[in-house]
Amino acid sequence: MAEQTYTVSGMSCGHCAASITEEVVEVPGVTDVDVDVPAGLVTVRGESVDADAVRAAFVEAGYEATKSMRSTVA
Which neighbouring-strand residues pair with 70? Predict the structure, then answer.
């Protein structure tokens, strides 16, 4: 399972987290999304997750993600 963590600007509340989760979970291969609003981080887990598709999902939700801070494969 792969894990990617992104810095996402503009998040300020639970609604932000819900909007992001709703969009990112639709990306093929994504199995889990963890949003840490205070830290401005979103961790995405799944099999063969396309980072460009994840970033596009952030944009669709109305947010911008900077480059992946950390990527791991377990």
Answer: 5
